[in-house]
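RECORD TYPE: inverse folding
INPUT: structure tokens
STRUCTURE:
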């Protein structure tokens, strides 16, 4: 889910169908905002548009519902994007899954891409600590939530450690929200 404060709507995904839903709390209206390919995550841009991480491509979704591709070729083989988060500096951390392996990529504002992790089961829930000195990262297959030291100036992640190990009988961790 992604709250869009400019227009007062909550956007959320049906990943497999590529549907982006919009819910307006003030009117209780729900609608399909956009339909497209498999979409693993989205972030809000400074201009109010939404950046979509789809089947190996990245697209911009405008508030009028139109969408256009801005990049492609980021996923290998049967990989697809699965969960993304934007840091306070506007970088996007994007997980990929499928084909027996997963990765964590960092997209810089200048368009460059850095691979941060490889061999991840299924990258999921990501979020930053309140002091912006750490980043949580979930691997649903391993049933673990990791905590990295995060350098806000460079976007570097270091010192990975297990924050939570989820027992099999409880289930697999997935999305994440960081709150007080």
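DESIGNED SEQUENCE:
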């Amino acid at each position: 889910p992604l709250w869009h404060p400019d227009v007062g709507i909550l956007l959320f995904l049906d990943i497999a169908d590529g549907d982006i839903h919009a819910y307006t709390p003030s009117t209780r209206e729900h609608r399909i905002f956009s339909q497209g390919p498999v979409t693993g995550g989205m972030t809000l841009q400074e201009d109010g548009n939404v950046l979509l991480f789809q089947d190996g491509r990245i697209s911009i979704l405008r508030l009028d519902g139109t969408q256009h591709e801005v990049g492609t070729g980021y996923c290998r083989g049967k990989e697809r994007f699965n969960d993304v988060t934007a840091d306070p500096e506007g970088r996007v951390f994007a997980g990929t899954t499928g084909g027996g392996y997963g990765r964590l990529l960092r997209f810089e504002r200048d368009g460059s891409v850095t691979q941060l992790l490889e061999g991840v089961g299924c990258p999921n829930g990501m979020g930053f600590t309140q002091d912006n000195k750490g980043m949580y990262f979930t691997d649903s297959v391993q049933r673990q939530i990791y905590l990295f030291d995060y350098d806000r100036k460079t976007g570097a992640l270091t010192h990975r450690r297990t924050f939570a190990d989820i027992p099999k009988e409880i289930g697999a961790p997935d999305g994440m929200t960081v709150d007080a």
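NOTES: The longest strand covers residues 157-165.
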